[in-house]
Write a structure and sequence with these properties.
Length: 333
């Protein structure tokens, strides 16, 4: 067993944990392996017992695994590991931290004797936390990637569950906690779920109201705007950010947080066909300025940001059938 082989084995057991795959974990041990999780418990004997023990991962989610190789000898590897996870259904955050020794027979890459010692800590994460709406594509993905790279734990939401899951998978490489909750930001019940997720992490430092509703495509003039569509634009672009900010205030105040509301030049442009979307962003800009004045003494910052034209799905919907390849990608921001 050399350093690279042991590193590969440790990464594999970490991946089995993150992916909640007991069988993948059990397959890393020989059929007659001994598995002892602490010196005071009788060891598990054999792969079936190990598989049963690892079945506990079904009660866990949002798992992150980190490790450090301490020493590797001819037949034994030592590693330090730490895991953060959310317990189901309590939503409690748990941190596990420990070391293990894994023994291997000559020319064998499966472990035959495993011993570990670990501690448990339950409570909030010490890392900063950001909540981003509209996080499954475009600028939302860019912002999530930026914050994950700065070691933020993330709460991500968007309507598309599949694309949100893909985004989450891409961000796992940063090793931060990611809570991905698909749903409609205009629904009060979903707003409550997002705040509960932040509460489970123990804090909220940044709220990014990025989710936006463009309205019908092609975009109608105000004279032709369906009132139901107009109301929905305001529910998503104005009411939802207001409601989410209201609910998040206790957490934001506790950490002197920041609210970022995504706006548009359509808020001031008066462009034909952009009346529904543009007026909603004008309203959001006014909310942002008012919030900033009202929350200054509480130490909560509120800003409204116009990222400019970008090559996104929503921008293409605003210009159906037109070539928008001259617009920059969201990561240019």
């Amino acid at each position: 067993m050399n350093h690279q082989q042991f590193e590969t084995w440790v990464k594999a057991i970490g991946a089995a944990w993150v992916n909640r795959d007991p069988q993948a974990a059990a397959d890393l041990f020989t059929p007659d392996a001994t598995y002892q999780e602490n010196p005071f418990e009788p060891p598990l004997q054999g792969r079936p017992a190990i598989l049963k023990y690892w079945g506990d991962v079904s009660t866990q989610e949002n798992i992150t695994f980190r490790h450090e190789i301490l020493e590797v000898t001819e037949h034994i590897g030592f590693a330090h590991w730490s895991v953060e996870l959310t317990r189901i259904p309590s939503s409690k955050r748990v941190k596990l931290d420990g070391i293990f020794a894994a023994s291997f027979h000559p020319n064998e890459t499966r472990c035959h004797e495993f011993r570990e010692w670990w501690t448990r800590q339950e409570g909030p994460s010490s890392r900063r936390v950001a909540l981003i709406t509209g996080a499954s594509r475009g600028l939302g993905v860019t912002l999530a990637t930026c914050l994950a790279g700065q070691n933020f734990d993330l709460i991500l939401t968007a309507r598309g569950a599949e694309s949100l899951e893909q985004t989450t998978g891409q961000l796992r490489q940063y090793g931060t906690t990611i809570l991905a909750l698909a749903g409609d930001i205009a629904e009060p019940a979903h707003q409550r779920r997002l705040i509960e997720a932040a509460e489970s992490l123990g804090r909220l430092d940044v709220l990014v109201n990025n989710a936006s509703e463009l309205g019908p495509s092609p975009m109608p003039t105000l004279a032709e705007m369906p009132l139901a569509a107009f109301r929905h634009i305001y529910e998503v672009n104005v009411v939802a950010p207001l409601a989410l900010t209201q609910s998040a205030l206790p957490l934001l105040k506790a950490n002197h947080g920041l609210v970022v509301n995504l706006s548009s030049d359509a808020a001031v442009g008066g462009y034909a066909g952009w009346g529904g979307y543009g007026s909603s962003k004008a309203a959001l800009d006014l909310l942002s300025r008012t919030w900033a004045n009202e929350l200054e003494e509480a130490g909560v910052g509120v800003v409204s940001v116009d990222p400019g034209d970008m090559r996104t799905v929503m921008h293409q919907q605003a210009f159906p059938g037109e070539d928008i390849s001259d617009r920059p990608e969201p990561n240019v921001t």
